[in-house]
Amino acid sequence: MGEEANCNVVLMEAAKSPKENGHSGVAAAVTDAPASAAPTAAKAVAVVDPRLQGISDAIRVVPHFPKQGIMFNDITPLLLRPGVFKDAVDIFVERYRGMGIDAVAGIEARGFIFGPAIALAIGAKFIPLRKPKKLPGEVISETYVLEYGTDCLQMHVGAIEAGERVLIVDDLVATGGTLSAAIRLLERAGADVVECACLIGLPKFKECACLHSLLFASERWKDIDKSAVHY
Ligand SMILES: O=P(O)(O)OC[C@H]1O[C@H](OP(=O)(O)OP(=O)(O)O)[C@H](O)[C@@H]1O
Ligand SMILES: Nc1ncnc2[nH]cnc12
């Protein structure tokens, strides 16, 4: 309960005071925790993790990249600051250590930055979910809609065994289309998707998906996916 409440706190705090520079908050961990796990707003303010401010400050927002109208959240400044980078990884490791996670699935490309570090720290295997035509073996594929285009994720057949507990990691959730595709892909392979963890949650995603409540079961993801692409 302690760990889950802590993570709720992070999201609730972020949703409460979105930053004007375009990213609303960091260390968004999306879960299928029951609504009753969410703390009150007052409690959230009291226990927010002090590392989050440094993480938030290290993310640069670039207007109109890669196209007009997109406020691009650039994590590369954070990567240049080892202490802040470590804080970001540690927050996830603290949450997922001891949760019986068998595999961390990282989404190309930016999920490959955080995913392996988390996997090593919690003693899980790492599974790359790759863009098309990158994996040499037999793959299963899932297509999805992005904030700026469409894409596809692929995973090697055999990377995951039925019933294995998986954490999906990416840097950012915008529409939720990418995470939804990752969940579908892993579930088709028989995985038990425990949670999805992202460093950044864009404000519009929070608003349209009620992410502050952290009701993030994979069934719900299918609904989010549909509504988000029309947002
Ligand atoms: O919630 P969504 O609307 O699906 O968007 C989020 C995804 O978009 C970005 O990746 P992108 O597809 O730009 O690929 P990249 O990491 O290779 O730049 C980001 O790293 C997420 O994977
Ligand atoms: N606004 C954004 N910034 C960075 N990566 C993204 N992927 C989708 N939307 C994005």
From TrEMBL:
Subcellular localization(s) per the UniProt record: Cytoplasm
MF (Gene Ontology): adenine phosphoribosyltransferase activity
Any matching Pfam family: Pribosyltran
Entry's EC annotation: 2.4.2.7
Keyword annotations of the record: Cytoplasm, Glycosyltransferase, Purine salvage, Transferase
SUPFAM superfamilies per UniProt: PRTase-like (SSF53271)
Phosphoribosyltransferase domain boundaries: 90-201
InterPro entries: Ade_phspho_trans, Adenine_PRTase, PRTase-like, PRTase_dom
Keyword Protease attributed: no
Pathway: Purine metabolism; AMP biosynthesis via salvage pathway; AMP from adenine: step 1/1
Catalyzed reactions per annotation: AMP + diphosphate = 5-phospho-alpha-D-ribose 1-diphosphate + adenine
Alphabetical list of HAMAP family matching this protein: Aden_phosphoribosyltr (MF_00004)
Name the UniProt record assigns to this protein: adenine phosphoribosyltransferase
Protein source organism: Leersia perrieri
Biological classification of the source: Eukaryota, Viridiplantae, Streptophyta, Embryophyta, Tracheophyta
